[in-house]
Amino acid sequence: MSSSTQLAPWTRSGLVLARTATGDGSVVVGDPCIVWDPEIGGWRMILFYAPPGHGQSHSPDPTGAPGTWTDPEPLVFTNPEVLPPGGGTHKPFVVMDAARPNRAAHVDGRYWLVSVVHDANSARKRAHRAWSTSLAGPWTFEEGDLIPVGEPGAFDDNHVDVVSGYWFEERQEWLYYYMGCPLTPRPWAHTPFGSAIGFATQRPGEPAVKGGIALEPSRTPGHWASGYLGGLQLLPGKEHRWVGVINASPTPPDRDGHLTSEEPAPCLGGLVWTDDEWPVSGWRFADEPLEWVADIPQDARAAGEEFNLWRQHVLALEGESRLFYNSGYYGVEQMYAKTIDLSRL
């Protein structure tokens, strides 16, 4: 894959899951994570569904086409009392087998779910982990943080956000990626409050260990990923060892307190890659994002695709695959998809 290669050609599939008028799912329907569920013989989508912040849907269609997904329902947790007072969990992600896209890792007889927990008292986010013997749940939270907020001065001393996880069978180790948001200015002159993608590792029976920054914002001002970085989906590549699908922005956060100050528009989707065997270093950005918001056609804008193209997630299929993402103004988002060609990645 060269620096100019995109997931092209692609075409829009349209709206996949819409926000509801009231109640559950009336704010955000997005941040998808899709895995094959052998119990139902179909795809199960775990997603950011707010309120309450988490949900699941499923599709019997082998391509995950729009119109085949059930209305989302909140996840069920056996012990929600372990969450911080006044807080909840959101942006869930099923831990995947790193070698097999869209296949959940089954480790020690369990499936594993990572999510972001908000502490109403400290206003900080951090990552938790839960387990279940079924992808349908119910899920049981482990005690304590999986990945805590960093120490003062660290790149993640404000939030640990947008977490994803992968199991490496040959290493007997989990690798987690997350959006590390700084409270203390970083030494990146063009984006001192820009988030980076951090990583942590974990072996069964042991606590997770932070490893630092896997990918920092581009040092080129105006680059599509020079402002802040969000979630990362890991895929085994063909031309490169690993390919990542991320969301990012060219706009530096200003932390002036308004709603979008930590993740200003436009949020975009794009590709990164590394040839390192252990994918925590050596990452490079594509020159361009998958699509600039300014290039969204008018009919798609009329259907709600505007302002931002949030967290991107590939359902890897034989032949054409499908790219899912949420679009809309911050906190007013619903889910869309494109069909894409992964054959050159």
Automatic annotation (TrEMBL):
It comes from the Bacteria. Gene3D superfamilies: Glycosyl hydrolase domain, family 43. InterPro entries: Glyco_hydro_beta-prop_sf. This is Glycosyl hydrolase family 43. It comes from Kineococcus glutinatus.
